[in-house]
Design a protein that fits this description.
Length: about 500
C-alpha cells in the first residue's frame, strides 16, 4: 500500500509524464512559420541577410525554419552552392549560409524579435569526410565526443553493394536500414545505441551552443519514426516536424503514431489535395475531406481532430518548388486557404518576399486577430462552384471564400476585411471591430483593402470617390464595388455618408 508521500511523488511523476507527451506539438498553437530559404538562395537568405530582416520577420512570424547549418560535402564557403543536405561535420557550423558566429548572431537577433528558430536536422545519412566511411570526430563539448565508423553504417548501404567504394567495399557492419535507403550518402544505423547517443548529444549541443529552439527532421522515411520520438525526448525541442513526403493520410498518420505523437509532420496530403490537385485546377471538391462521415473539413491531416495538432501546412517548399510538385495556381488564393485553416501554417520565402508580401502579412494579421490555432474547428460549407470555410478562432470566426462564383456580399453579422483575386475574407463584426448596426441594416460600409477601396451599398446609392484636392476618380451605384487605387488618402461618399480612407 502506498503511503501519503509515495502517492504524492507518484502523482507528480505522472503529471510530469503527461506534460511531456506531445510536447513537440504545441497545443492550440497560434504559431505561423516562415521557411526562410529556398534552393540555392545562399546569397539571398544567408545568415547576415536574414539578420537584417529580423524586425520585419518578427512582425509577422513566430517561427522560422532555417536550412541545414552543419558543414557539408563539396563547396561550403559562404555563398557557395551546396545547400547542406549531405553533412560532413556536425559540430562545424560554418556553411555556405554563413559562419557559426553569423548564425549565432542571427538566432539571437531573431529571439530578440520574438521569433523561435527551427534547425534543419539531417541525421538519416552522413557524408564521408575523406572517403565513403571515414568520418571526423564529433566533439560536442559537455555533451560528449563520438567517433562514427563503418560499424555505424547500415549493412544495406551502397558501401556494401557498390564496388566504387574501393577498399571500403563491404565494410559496413551496422544493422539493416529501418527505413528507405538514401544512395547519396551513408545511411546511419539508428538501432545502434552509440549512434543514438551521438545524435542526442548533437541536438542538445545545437540548443545549448548555437541557440536553436526546435527541429525540422529531413527525410524521415529513411529511418523508423520511433527514433525521432527518442531524440525529441532527449533534446526537448519547442517544436518538431518531420518531412514524411507522402500524399497518403494513413501513411503520414502512421509515422506520427510511430514517434509516439512526439513530432508534427508536414501536411503533404493537404499540399496535394487542397493545392496541387484542387485549387490549381479550380476543383473545389478536392479541397475538403469529410471527418468521420459528419463534417467537411479542409483536406489533409488537418481534416481530422486526431491530427490537426500535428500538422504543419504549406503550399510549397524548397524541393517542390523546383520540380513537378510545384503549386501552379494563384498564390494569394492558396494563402487565403492556408491561413484560414488549422495546423501550423508554413509560408514559403519566395511567395512571401514578392508582390504577395503585403497580402500574406495582412492574412496573417487577420488569422491572429481571429485567434485561429492549430486545432481550430474549421468547417467547409461550400465545395462545388466555389470554396467557403468557417474558421472558429479563440476571438472570432473567419469566413474564407475562394472562386469567381462566390458571393461578394458579406453574410449578416460579418464584415469584409480583405479581398483579392477571386478570394475574400470576412470576420464576424465583433472580431472585426465593427459595432452591429441597430435599426437601419441598409447602411453602406466603406473600407480599404490592399491596393484599393471597397464599398457595400445595399441602397444602390451613388458611390463617388475623390482625391483630397477634390478630383472625382470614381462613380457608380453598384450594390458592391472594389476599386483599385494608388496609395494615398481619398474621400468616399455614398449618398449622404462620407468617409476618409487611406489606401496603403
Amino acid at each position: 500500500m502506498l503511503n501519503y508521500k509515495s502517492a504524492i511523488l507518484l502523482s507528480a511523476v505522472s503529471l510530469l509524464a503527461a506534460a511531456n507527451v506531445n510536447a513537440q506539438a504545441p497545443a492550440q498553437s497560434e504559431d505561423v512559420m516562415l521557411q526562410g530559404f529556398y534552393w540555392d538562395s545562399q546569397k539571398v537568405t544567408g545568415w547576415t541577410q536574414l539578420t537584417s530582416m529580423a524586425a520585419e520577420l518578427g512582425e509577422n512570424f513566430t517561427c522560422i525554419w532555417l536550412p541545414p547549418s552543419a558543414s557539408a560535402e563539396g563547396y561550403t564557403a559562404v555563398g557557395e552552392t551546396n545547400v547542406g543536405y549531405h553533412p560532413r561535420i556536425w559540430n562545424n557550423q560554418n556553411s555556405c549560409w554563413g559562419t557559426a558566429a553569423d548564425l549565432k548572431t542571427l538566432i539571437s537577433t531573431l529571439h530578440d524579435n520574438g521569433v523561435k528558430v527551427i534547425a534543419d536536422i539531417v541525421v538519416n545519412h552522413r557524408a564521408g569526410y575523406t572517403s565513403w566511411v571515414t568520418f571526423p570526430k564529433d566533439d560536442f563539448g559537455e555533451f560528449g565526443t563520438y567517433q562514427l565508423t563503418a560499424a555505424h553504417v547500415c549493412n544495406t548501404d551502397e558501401v556494401n553493394t557498390d564496388k566504387n567504394a574501393g577498399g571500403e567495399y563491404g565494410t559496413a557492419t551496422g544493422a539493416a536500414d529501418t527505413g528507405d535507403n538514401w544512395s547519396g550518402a551513408r545511411d546511419l544505423d539508428h538501432t545502434s545505441e552509440y549512434v543514438q547517443n551521438d545524435i542526442k548529444a548533437y541536438l542538445k549541443w545545437l540548443k545549448s551552443e548555437i541557440g536553436y529552439d526546435g527541429w525540422r527532421y529531413d527525410l524521415v522515411k529513411g529511418f523508423s519514426g520511433k527514433y525521432v520520438g527518442m531524440y525529441n525526448d532527449a533534446s526537448e525541442p519547442y517544436l518538431s516536424v518531420g518531412e514524411y513526403w507522402d500524399g497518403s493520410y494513413d501513411n503520414v498518420a502512421a509515422w506520427i503514431e510511430a514517434t509516439g505523437k512526439k513530432s508534427m509532420a508536414f501536411d503533404f496530403p493537404a499540399k496535394y489535395a487542397i493545392f496541387n490537385n484542387g485549387l490549381a485546377n479550380n476543383n473545389f471538391g478536392n479541397m475538403s475531406w469529410i471527418e468521420d462521415n459528419t463534417t467537411w473539413r479542409p483536406a489533409g491531416m488537418i481534416h481530422h481532430a486526431n491530427y490537426r495538432r500535428y500538422a504543419v501546412t504549406f503550399v510549397d517548399n524548397h524541393d517542390s518548388y523546383r520540380d513537378g510538385n510545384k503549386y501552379t495556381g494563384e498564390v494569394s488564393q492558396a494563402y487565403a486557404v492556408l491561413l484560414a485553416s488549422p495546423g501550423i501554417p508554413c509560408v514559403f520565402y519566395p511567395h512571401w518576399n514578392s508582390s504577395y508580401k503585403a497580402t500574406i502579412n495582412k492574412m496573417i494579421d487577420i488569422r491572429k486577430r481571429a485567434g485561429i490555432t492549430s486545432e481550430s474547428d474549421v468547417e467547409v460549407t461550400q465545395r462545388s462552384s466555389y470554396y467557403e470555410s468557417y474558421s472558429k478562432g479563440k476571438n472570432g470566426t473567419l469566413i474564407c471564400r475562394i472562386g469567381s462564383a462566390a458571393p461578394a456580399t458579406a453574410p449578416e453579422g460579418y464584415t469584409q476585411v480583405a479581398v483579392g483575386m477571386n478570394w475574400r475574407y470576412y470576420l464576424d463584426d465583433a472580431c472585426a471591430g465593427v459595432e452591429a448596426i441597430e435599426g437601419d441594416s441598409q447602411e453602406a460600409t466603406i473600407g480599404a483593402v490592399d491596393g484599393g477601396i471597397y464599398v457595400t451599398n445595399p441602397r444602390c446609392e451613388q458611390v463617388r470617390i475623390y482625391t483630397t484636392d477634390g478630383k472625382q476618380v470614381h462613380a457608380s451605384d453598384a450594390v458592391e464595388c472594389d476599386v483599385k487605387m494608388a496609395q494615398g488618402i481619398y474621400i468616399v461618399k455614398v449618398g449622404s455618408k462620407a468617409e476618409k480612407v487611406l489606401v496603403k
